[in-house]
Design goal:
Length: about 375
């Protein structure tokens, strides 16, 4: 078995999604050096988060996205895990996952019947709607947007969801009903004098999950580039557009496989996702479970106990008791383009592209900027 590669750890405290809010909302001229120059001097800033648009995937297709390719900037890092629930919360809260506590896509929570796994994006557990026992404001320990009433330009499909209440609470809803309305709402917010506008577009991620990185993905990238051009067209003098993403993508397809029965037998529960899988060990079985995972998967994945992962700083600081309780005992995080399926996770096999791990393809995201 060869030596494992070094994970691409997030640059917490620097050019990272968790520092983006402070970096973009500071006084013009005082923003960090990693903020693109057109944005660093702007009096009004629009942040567009394009879900799933990784830096490596964009660079390989620059000719399909001339507007994005012409913008200033480069790569910054996402957070751990590289999953939407954690990354978006880090963007809007301005702190690493260790501090806000939304430490994954599927996390352990306590319910009246004992313990279950919460799907953070759907805000459900196997028992149903989880808002009855997991209040959205309680999962996220940070205050989104530092308590400011920031305009949130996002799809109306997300309005009122548990996850929206968690990571966008306090924001001013400026929902759009079709993508053509995104620039309309951004223009209205800027005309009203708003200094910072948060916008979100999710179709790149949807297409990658459903169809991979082929022709459909490339068509969506072309469309997204036109959307960026339209946003640049509504900027008034003194404003700038910043474009980033929550994570990149890895094409996995049929290489997402069920876990071996022998390792499953040592776990009472699984959480996380296929590229950042948490095992909740049966009493007394953590050591044996770790050894079994290393023996079976150590040639394609990082295997870490929660203590090891915490000590290496994957979550951007020491995990507090509440955040730690949401995680398992041993994590299985592949560097190879594979995924590890949870038998209880519905529809997982159908995804072509996946993310969650700490490979460069998943961690590196763009931070690009331009003015009118």
């Amino acid at each position: 078995m060869g030596s494992e590669p070094v994970p691409t750890l997030p640059a917490y405290g620097g050019a990272c999604l968790s520092s983006l809010l402070a970096g973009l909302t500071g006084e013009p001229g005082t923003r960090p050096a990693w903020v693109p120059q057109p944005v660093a001097e702007a009096r009004q800033v629009v942040l567009l988060v394009v879900d799933g648009l990784g830096w490596e995937q964009l660079v390989r297709r620059r000719e399909l996205a001339p507007t994005l390719a012409s913008m200033a900037g480069g790569p910054i890092t996402s957070v751990a895990p590289t999953t939407t629930a954690t990354a978006l919360t880090s963007i809007t809260s301005g702190v690493p996952p260790a501090l806000h506590g939304v430490v994954g896509y599927r996390v352990r929570v306590e319910v009246p019947a004992g313990e279950e796994v919460l799907n953070v994006l759907k805000w459900t557990t196997p028992s149903g709607d989880a808002r009855r026992w997991v209040p959205p404001a309680g999962l996220n320990a940070a205050v989104p947007f530092a308590g400011r009433a920031v305009p949130v330009v996002s799809s109306s499909a997300f309005r009122g969801s548990g996850f929206s209440e968690s990571h966008l609470r306090g924001g001013v809803d400026r929902s759009w009903h079709s993508a053509s309305g995104l620039a309309v709402e951004v223009r209205a917010a800027l005309t009203a004098g708003e200094p910072f506008v948060y916008a979100y577009y999710d179709a790149v991620d949807k297409v990658a999950h459903a169809a991979g990185l082929g022709a459909h993905y490339e068509a969506e990238l072309r469309w997204t580039d036109r959307l960026v051009a339209e946003l640049l067209g509504v900027l008034p003098p003194g404003a700038a557009l910043a474009v980033t993403a929550d994570h990149g993508q890895v094409e996995v397809g049929s290489r997402a496989r069920p876990l071996d029965r022998d390792v499953l037998s040592a776990a009472r529960m699984l959480s996380g996702e296929a590229r950042f899988r948490w095992f909740h060990a049966r009493p007394g079985a953590q050591g044996d479970l770790r050894d079994a995972l290393v023996e079976r998967y150590g040639g394609q994945a990082w295997v870490r106990t929660v203590d090891e992962l915490d000590a290496e700083g994957w979550y951007g600081g020491a995990l507090g008791p509440r955040a730690r309780a949401r995680l398992g005992d041993v994590a299985l995080v592949p560097w190879e383009p594979v995924g590890y399926l949870d038998p209880d996770e519905r529809n997982g096999v159908q995804l072509v592209c996946r993310h969650g791990s700490l490979t460069a393809a998943e961690v590196l995201v763009p931070l690009l900027g331009a003015g009118p």
